């Protein structure tokens, strides 16, 4: 039953939009922790996911989002003072 609800919801969106929703939710969940290292790791992981997702499934601008996240993520990680 629950899987049918999730499936009917996700049919209206492409894979990139679902990944973007996951990225936003996990980033908002990591912000209260106050650790820029965790945010940096989150950015790098989702950058890799966006960059490695086949372009058949998502528009090409998600590739550029992935590259951007892979650039910003290590900068956040290195500059963290945790």
UniProtKB/TrEMBL annotation:
It comes from the Archaea. Keywords: Membrane, Transmembrane, Transmembrane helix. The chain crosses the membrane at residues 12-31, 38-54, 60-80. Residues 3-81 form the DUF8006 domain. InterPro entries: DUF8006. Pfam families: DUF8006. This is DUF8006 domain-containing protein. It comes from Haloprofundus marisrubri.
């Amino acid at each position: 039953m629950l899987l049918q609800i999730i499936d009917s919801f996700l049919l209206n969106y492409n894979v990139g939009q679902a990944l973007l929703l996951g990225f936003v939710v996990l980033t908002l969940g990591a912000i209260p922790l106050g650790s820029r290292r965790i945010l940096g790791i989150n950015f790098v992981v989702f950058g890799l996911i966006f960059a490695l997702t086949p372009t058949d499934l998502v528009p090409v601008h998600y590739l550029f989002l992935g590259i951007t996240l892979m650039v910003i993520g290590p900068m956040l990680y290195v500059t963290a003072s945790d």
